[in-house]
């Protein structure tokens, strides 16, 4: 079976980058930590990640190549504690979200074990361009 790409459609010119973004997003579908995405206004969104057990210093947020990347890494407290049962994982994670053009990352707030990251989208102006036809 042949894989169809956006480049194989003659009316989809210049969408190769979108195809790469879709492939990159499909690869980062790990389920930890769980998250919500909500629309908070017409052009505003909030991503909320459940990061219980992580301190503010254990988390980092970066934007890399139009991709929002949230990383968490807890410092291991060594052998100071003896667990009889350890059901709460203290593992590192990386969660990525592809951002569309015009989406800007606002503030990040840590609250009750939840990390909120606010996003805003600028509304592009509608541009009509007339192309002159010349004789050849």
Automatic annotation (TrEMBL):
The keyword Ribosomal protein appears for this protein: no
Domain SHSP: 26-136
Keyword Ubl conjugation among record annotations: no
Domain of life of the organism encoding this protein: Bacteria
Keywords: Stress response
Record-stated family: Belongs to the small heat shock protein (HSP20) family.
Protein name per its UniProtKB record: Small heat shock protein IbpA
Lineage, highest ranks first: Bacteria, Pseudomonadati, Pseudomonadota, Alphaproteobacteria, Rhodobacterales
């Amino acid at each position: 079976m042949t894989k169809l790409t956006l480049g194989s459609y003659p009316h989809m010119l210049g969408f190769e980058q979108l195809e790469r973004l879709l492939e990159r997003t499909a690869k980062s579908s790990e389920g930890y930590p769980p998250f919500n995405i909500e629309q908070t206004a017409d052009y505003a969104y909030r991503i909320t990640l459940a990061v219980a057990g992580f301190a503010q210093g254990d988390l980092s947020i970066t934007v890399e190549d139009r991709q929002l990347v949230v990383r968490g890494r807890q410092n291991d407290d060594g052998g100071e504690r003896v667990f009889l049962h350890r059901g709460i994982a203290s593992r590192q994670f990386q969660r990525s979200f592809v951002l569309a053009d015009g989406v800007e990352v606002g503030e990040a707030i840590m609250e009750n074990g939840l990390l909120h990251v606010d996003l805003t989208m600028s509304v592009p102006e509608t541009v009509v361009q007339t192309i002159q036809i010349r004789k050849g």
